[in-house]
Amino acid sequence: MTVKRETTTTVTAPRKDGDTPIVVVDDVRHSFGSGPRAVHALRGVSFDIRRGELVALRGRSGSGKTTLLNLVGGLDSPTGGRITLDGTDLAALDEPGLLALRRDRIGFVFQSFGLIPVLTAVENVGVPMRLRRIPAKEREERARTLLALVGLADHAEQRPGELSGGQQQRVAVARALANDPDLIIADEPTGQLDLETGRSIMELLRAVVRSKAVTILVATHDPNLIELADRVVELRDGRIITPGDA
Ligand SMILES: Nc1ncnc2c1ncn2[C@@H]1O[C@H](COP(=O)(O)OP(=O)(O)OP(=O)(O)O)[C@@H](O)[C@H]1O
Ligand SMILES: [Mg+2]
């Protein structure tokens, strides 16, 4: 048996200690391609996210934000360094393990909403629960509760094409919450919205962090969003330049 955290890999019990970071990013590097044409998108990035924090990831286009979110979300594996989520080293998980982690512990929100056009709002919110084989009745009840939480109780039967951009993003936030995740990863969630609507989405995320004890990592250029964050991590050319508190 070992006590070194570096070598504890697969089965780690959830930690009770509120101060233990939920996400640890340790000297993460990531390159696309190899040889002289390789793009070094991340060049040694380290930071922690504490439970219940809303962290904004800022940086100009091409600085590595999406790359980093994809790695933290287990959508891709880093070329170097290590990422742990709630004490689990992502590198120790196989594909089914990563799939289960993404399904059960992480909620994703994207700039382009990513809703399924033929499904109603309540059906879209139910999709992650379907993947977990939650029975239809329970799924629908929970989806309706979540839609009410994001202010869309009266729009449950509308399809994405019948909703405004801001409403679609609210549905996406409700969907991200469907499986009661520990972490929400959002990539420029206000990027396609006007200032006012973007602000309301950001306030929604802020409220979600408060009421649901969720942690959020959000990439953004939006000053409104940055203002509401607990902390800002700034990337420049694949490195962190301001790890300090906002
Ligand atoms: N699949 C890929 N293949 C090759 N290079 C890639 C790939 N994905 C990203 N890159 C490169 O990695 C670097 C970081 O890209 P990334 O998408 O992480 O930036 P970003 O900060 O999210 O930018 P934006 O604000 O425009 O979304 C860029 O130079 C980009 O061209
Ligand atoms: Mg991006």
Q: Unreliable runs, pLDDT <50, ≥5 residues?
A: 1-15
CATH topology title: Rossmann fold
Overall body shape: globular
Write out the CATH superfamily name. Answer: P-loop containing nucleotide triphosphate hydrolases
Number of strands: 10
State the secondary-structure class: alpha/beta
Total of DSSP H or I helical runs spanning 4+ residues: 7
Identify the CATH class.
Alpha Beta
Instruction: Summarize the amount of helix as a percent range.
Output: 25-40%
User: Ligands in the structure?
Assistant: adenosine-5'-triphosphate, magnesium ion
Q: Mean pLDDT across all residues, rounded? A: 89
SSE pattern, N- to C-terminal? EEEHEEHEHHHEHEHEE
Protein name: ABC transporter
GO molecular function: ATP binding; ATP hydrolysis activity; transmembrane transporter activity
Domain ABC transporter: 23-246
Keywords: ATP-binding, Nucleotide-binding, Transport
What does this structure look like?
This protein is 32% helix and 25% strand. It has 246 residues and is an alpha/beta fold. Helix 3 (121-131) packs across helix 4 (136-149), helix 3 (121-131) packs parallel to helix 5 and helix 5 (165-176) runs parallel beside helix 6. The protein is globular and about 50 Å long. The N and C termini lie far apart (40 Å). Residues 1-15 have low confidence and may be disordered. Adenosine-5'-triphosphate is lined by residues 32, 39, 41, 59, 61-67.
